[in-house]
Design a protein that fits this description.
Elements: H1 2-11, E1 21-23, H2 28-37, E2 44-46, H3 58-61, E3 70-73, E4 79-83, H4 87-100
Parallel strand pairs: 1-2
Antiparallel strand pairs: 3-4
């Protein structure tokens, strides 16, 4: 998934688009090394281990049990897709959503 995410972030560089990662990995130092190794440049939130204080975590509040779970949120803040999308499905859906944004 990471090569596709890097490509998507690069392709959408000048568009109204943000990729945000939510990570439940247990250690920040290991995750930082993983990000550096895989050239992860987009913002990430680190929330702790899966199931840890589930009511207080993003994954607990959003009922996430399988990783990765992707949410596509439109420019008005509505969730328009949730699940496991392939790289090409995600890229196609993002392009379609960006095309729907009214020009200012």
């Amino acid at each position: 998934m990471l090569p596709g995410e890097r490509e998507l972030v690069k392709a959408m560089k000048d568009k109204p688009f943000v990729l945000l990662g939510i990570n439940s990995d247990s250690g920040r130092s290991g995750l930082k090394k993983k990000f550096e190794k895989n050239h992860v440049t987009w913002p990430n939130i680190i929330e702790g281990r899966p199931g840890e204080k589930a009511a207080l975590t993003i994954s607990g509040q959003w009922n996430i049990h399988v990783y990765p779970t992707l949410f596509l949120i439109d420019h008005e803040g509505r969730i328009i897709e949730r699940g496991h999308l392939s790289e090409w499905q995600l890229k196609d859906m993002v392009k379609k959503q960006i095309a729907k944004i009214p020009k200012s």
